[in-house]
Amino acid sequence: MARVLLLHSMYGLRPAVLQAADRLRSAGHEVHVPDLYDGRVVDDAEAGIEIKEEIGRDELLRRAVAAAAPLVGDGGDSGDGGLVYAGFSLGGSLAQNLALADAKAGGLLLMHGTSDMADDASTEIPVQLHVADPDTFEPSDWQNAWYLRMRKAGADVEVFRYRGAGHLFTDPDLPDYDAEAAERAWTIALDFLATL
Asked: Contact, 1 vs 21, CB < 8 A?
């Protein structure tokens, strides 16, 4: 069983995020899903960007850190190696920042999003990325450079690309949704979590 902090995308804590958390719980994992937007949920990218910019990147990261703080280093009875950070798009970016700052992180599961990282970053955590191919928010050049930086940092990285899928292809209530790609991604992600 993994303990997972699952962070939502710029659309807010949508039903798809809660459904994903339930799916992970059904597989035996402990999942925590904070609301970084204080209840605001949107259906289009422009509105999501507005909320994200209104709150600000630093404040979103602070909120994510606050959500993780009670969970970090608390392995409970599971005997696991640490908290697994996961997120959708913006949430993936935040999850990556948290995982790289947590020396005891158990893993990093990124759905649709990555983040910049310092050149001197160092980590040995297992990392899995699921991303559309092509992706409007994560161009191939960015993904390739991200992969190389993560490998240089010492991470054990797997990247799964989904040709023809939209950016947030796991959310059934958005136009990006791709049922086949979503099911494949969740199957692979659950296998990944089972190893942590």
From this structure: no
Q: What is the pTM of this model?
A: 0.94
Tell me the domain boundaries of the chain. 3-194
The architecture CATH gives domain 3-194: 3-Layer(aba) Sandwich (3.40)
Indicate if the alpha-carbon torsion angle 100, 18, 172, 44 is positive or negative.
negative
Query: By the 8 A CB rule, do 68 and 33 touch?
Result: no
DSSP 8-state class, residue 14: -
Q: Give the separation between CA 172 and CA 72, rounded to whole angstroms.
A: 31
Q: pLDDT tens digits, residue range 54-75? A: 999 999 999 999 999 999 865 4
Q: What is the 3-state secondary structure (H, E, C) of 100-139?
A: HHCCCCCEEEEECCCCCCCCCCCCCCEEEEEEEECCCCCC
- CA nearest to 54, candidates 98, 115, 10: 10
* Closest to 86 (Cα-Cα) out of 65, 111, 66: 111
Q: What is the pLDDT of residues 152-194, one digit of tens each?
A: 999 999 999 999 999 999 999 999 999 999 999 999 999 999 9
Query: For residue 139, how many other CB atoms are within 10 A of its CB?
Result: 11
